[in-house]
User: Fold this.
Amino acid sequence: MTAPRTAAEPLGSQTLDASVLLRQSALSADTAQLLRDFPGYSSQAAGGVSSLPCIRGLADDRLRIEMDGMSLLSSCGNHMNPPMSYIDPSRVERVRVFAGVVPVSVGGDSIGATVQVDSAEPVFAEPGQPARVGGEAGASVQSNGRGVAAHATAHYATDRFSLRYDGALSQADNYRAGGDFKPAGPASIDKPDQWLRADEVGSTAYKTRNHALTGAWRGDDQLVQLRLGVQDIPYQYYPNQRMDMTRNDSYHLNLRYDGRFNWGRLEARAWHENTRHGMQFGDDKQYWYGPKGDVPGMPMDTRGRTSGLRVMGELPLSERDTLRVGAEALRYRLDDWWLPSGGGMAPNTFWNIRDGQRDRLDVFTEWEARWNPKWLTLVGLRSANTRTDAGPVQGYNASYDADANAFNARDRCRTEVAPEKWSS
Ligand SMILES: [Cu+2]
Assistant:
């Protein structure tokens, strides 16, 4: 069967659907790898489950990444926890990429592409039919690095109510290169027992666990959905960084509303995400430092919290014209502190970012006209207001005072207003 594609896909987007994703998800535990077949896509390798996406040369924070409609940021200063590392590939049902010029209704807060990663829509039983009960389980094993991954889902659904659980686990040891590329030996001078083989790439092991519980209710023309997601990465090591992730605990709450009215469609979402992240030197890196070798590593801790609210109305004005009007508010809070360990990194806690704040308020409107199956125009206007602020910083000791005092003496509150407009 063939049909014009234009009618089905939003302008400027490309989508990978479930059948392609199913094949891709068995190949890697890293969700960012699901996008590898998109033209212009590449990824910057990092830890085993957290490569940084790059689309047409713009990477990481230059892209807007939405996971189930939540626009997320990497709270770690080294971006060890990019947004796509928060969802297991087995849970991804659809990936949509808006590369190049992005419509204002899906863009904002980035100069590059928008990537939307969505898990499954809730299922419901047909009216009058018995409840639907089902599930799925999957596992994969990889000989290189002894990688194992397993996931399971279960759902129960009546015609009005739906409940679903998703769980996934994934872990691997260090992987092996195609051949020997260095002499075998201890991972570092203070770890004679931590032996790395000649073909073993140190600091590539990881472990990640994901759980999500989703409840949904549907009326005749409405849908309300609430999801609670919990993720924990006890360790993920980085061959390309001086430090390793030694903890990453996060949870999110995501409330969504979708309603159809005689004037059009209303989409609303409110969500909150909280990440607690820690870095230290992992198993394959030197841990004891200082002239006497008595300084235990360098702990670095981060906490990020994002709350978001988004409301959009879609009004079909005629057979040809559609108007979209929406608003989006984001509230981001970040603390980044390094506990004293010894030597020059003592006696105080190093406050890199204390009470960091970033608040956004965007409004947008967009007019879409489908003149015929081959021609479409889309004109949008988006206004973005960003306010940032931070509390006073502090170094480990007096030798940091000059820089800290200079920063602390300044007014640290900034406001930017930017209209973003687009036409096609
Ligand atoms: Cu980190």
